[in-house]
Amino acid sequence: MAITDELAQLREQTLARIAEADTSAALESVRVAVLGKAGTLTGYLRGMGKVAKEERAVVGKTVNEVRNVVEEALEARKKKLAAAEMEAAIDASAVDVTLPGRAQQMGTRHLINAITDEVSETFLGLGYTVVHGPEVETDYYNFEALNAPKDHPSRSMQDTFYVRDLSGEASSVRGESDVLLRTQTSGVQVHVMEDQKPPIYIIAPGKVYRRDVADPSHLPQFTQIEGLVIDKGISFGDLKGTLDYFCKQMFGPDRKTRFRAHYFPFTEPSAEADVSCGVCGGTGHLHDGERCRMCKGTGWLEILGCGMVDPNVLTMSGIDPEEYSGFAFGVGVERVACLKYNVPDLRMLLEGDMRFLRQF
Ligand code: DAH
């Protein structure tokens, strides 16, 4: 075959391979095979010296033509492939902005905190101030200054966690320690009366501790909100009006309150307040006549302790009972939460079960 025919054949083959190359890498290997150092066309260029003189001009021209055509075809194909590859890369890294976002799990306020805030807000609205007292308390503030006699049952080891100092001498023998985890927030009353002159209108929310085994109606740690009002001419009527308002705010305007005589060492007279049962509407039985289990058929739910501050307590804290009188109350937050939302077991509040907690 004449060299020019060989070159024409090489040209066609090369153009076909260029057209077939579907990646930049495949195209590059075609270029190397034809135009590289050991390439087929390069071979013809190098071999020009061996071509017969009379053919040299024609063959040289043909080789150059083929090289130009191949180079042009390579260049055009290269651009095309680069554009396609760029497009594919963009497609591959594309973000679908229409995909729905991943839902973030929102935390919720714990029911105990929510109720504490709700009670606080009710009293803030009445002009009260929120104060806090220490959880580790002395016997004086938790019992003595609250008129709890030395033999009062609430002081027994059965009820109180005593704190022992283990660092030095056994200064505190079992049950005789002066330091304890407060069993009630009532001690804050004493701190406030020592620090502030009347008029006093405060509430004091906080944790309290008792040596109880957790069961549906007891927790070894729970939350109380203490209230204290000291002013001139404060009567039991003020106490009733205030707590009735509080119950209606907390449980709804249809709920009734009643006060039953009770005993607390630091108030005289003392009472327990009940709110009418929300499950049976205060009737004690359900529509089908069945006894209401929430209030055990009584129609009432006990919600707090209260009373007129005992003159002894005022005197011990430096307030003249001839000039001032006052009332106090203590309410259990977990109990209010359970009554408000018909939760049958106090322990459910502390189990951290998200299915329960998310309901509020
Ligand atoms: N400290 C009482 C208790 O834990 C509750 C209480 C009753 C508080 C009467 C008061 C009150 O302020 O006046 O059972």
TrEMBL record:
Keywords recorded for this protein, A-Z: Aminoacyl-tRNA synthetase, ATP-binding, Cytoplasm, Ligase, Magnesium, Metal-binding, Nucleotide-binding, Protein biosynthesis
PROSITE patterns (alphabetical): AA_TRNA_LIGASE_II
Binding sites annotated in the UniProt record for Mg(2+): 268
Nucleotide-binding found in the keyword field: yes
E.C. number(s) listed in UniProt: 6.1.1.20
BP terms from Gene Ontology: phenylalanyl-tRNA aminoacylation
Gene3D superfamilies, A to Z: Bira Bifunctional Protein, Domain 2 (3.30.930.10)
Domain Aminoacyl-transfer RNA synthetases class-II family profile positions: 111-351
A GO term for molecular function: tRNA binding
Cofactor comment: Binds 2 magnesium ions per tetramer.
The keyword Transmembrane helix appears for this protein: no
Reaction(s) the record says it catalyses: tRNA(Phe) + L-phenylalanine + ATP = L-phenylalanyl-tRNA(Phe) + AMP + diphosphate + H(+)
Cell compartments where the protein resides: Cytoplasm
Cofactor (UniProt): Mg(2+)
GO CC list: cytoplasm
SUPFAM superfamilies on file: Class II aaRS and biotin synthetases (SSF55681), tRNA-binding arm (SSF46589)
Database matches in InterPro entries: aa-tRNA-synth_II, aa-tRNA-synth_II/BPL/LPL, Phe-tRNA-synth_IIc_asu, Phe-tRNA_ligase_II_N, Phe_tRNA_ligase_alpha1_bac, Phenylalanyl-tRNA_Synthase, tRNA-bd_arm
Assembly, per entry: Tetramer of two alpha and two beta subunits.
HAMAP family (UniProt xref): Phe_tRNA_synth_alpha1
Family: Belongs to the class-II aminoacyl-tRNA synthetase family. Phe-tRNA synthetase alpha subunit type 1 subfamily.
Matching PANTHER family: PHENYLALANINE--TRNA LIGASE, MITOCHONDRIAL (PTHR11538:SF41), PHENYLALANYL-TRNA SYNTHETASE (PTHR11538)
Protein name per its UniProtKB record: Phenylalanine--tRNA ligase alpha subunit
Native source species: Ellagibacter isourolithinifaciens
Gene that this sequence comes from: pheS
